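Thread: Sugar ABC transporter permease, structure

OP (GT): Posting the sequence first so everyone is looking at the same thing. Length is 313 residues per the record. Can we get the structure tokens written out before standup tomorrow? I want them in the notebook alongside the other entries.
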Amino acid sequence: MITTKVTRKKSGIIEWKSDLVKNKWLYILFLPALVWYILFAYWPMFGLVVAFEKYNVVKGIMGSKWVGLQNFKDIFSDIYFTQLLKNTFLLSLNSLIFGFPIPIVLALCFNEVRHMMFKKVAQTISYLPYFISTVIVCGLAITFLSPSTGIVNAIIGKFGFESTYFLQEPKYFRTIYVIVGVWQTMGFSAILYIAALAGISPELYEAAKIDGANRWKQLCYITFPSLIPTITIMLILSLGNMLNADFEKIILLYNPTIYETADVLNTYVYRKGLLDANYSYATAIGLFQGVVGFVLVLGANWLSKKANGTSLW
């Protein structure tokens, strides 16, 4: 048995070396990406040690006092933590509920368009907002919602209603955040589903036509079911970001008057870490977000694998 294991190990090494020589240019091409991930994704993870210390900039990571789980105890006893967690979860949940299906619907609509020129123009227009800076997108939102010069309040005024400063009212922030996010990303997000639709065999549609299936039945029984694996994978990945609301968009749109609904874990980390220089506390919150996201991805992946056999691994 030992001899067999040694033989298999040697055989595996020989195969690996053979593959390395055969595909050496592909490995060389992959090398810069590997180096980038090591330097900027995996090596910085060593800094998570700060979450268990009372970090001192002068003493550094190795010289700072070890406090164990004290930073996490402080987080869970923080009077703002429950509200921050609630705001983060609700913003992410609303974005998932309203933002996740729209790219799918958009891709299905594009797939049904037969006029190629119109289809290309419409797709291009839907992609454009994604390539606009978030600063500009939020600036447009602020301008449109302005109580004095905004087009939204101008329309409201035409119907005899008073102007509203939407970005000063906590109850409107979640709606504004979701609408801005959907408008900016729906076209680009639809690309993946359009690519998946392009991979559906035309023979399936031809067979369905022969059986008398109309366009609606083809959509229900061929097109949409073919998207299920892609939708499942994207949903699993989206669940991993449930505690990571779009920091840049929020910090450009919010202000102290709407902290009640707009203040989230990421913005709190920014204030605690950069403005108050409480690096250990901010790192602990970030680690908490990462662990929760990891657990959500694991759980969603397990459920998906049990339900329909589709999973990330």
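GT: Both are above now. Quick notes for whoever picks this up: The mean pLDDT is 87. DSSP finds 16 helices and two strands in the chain.
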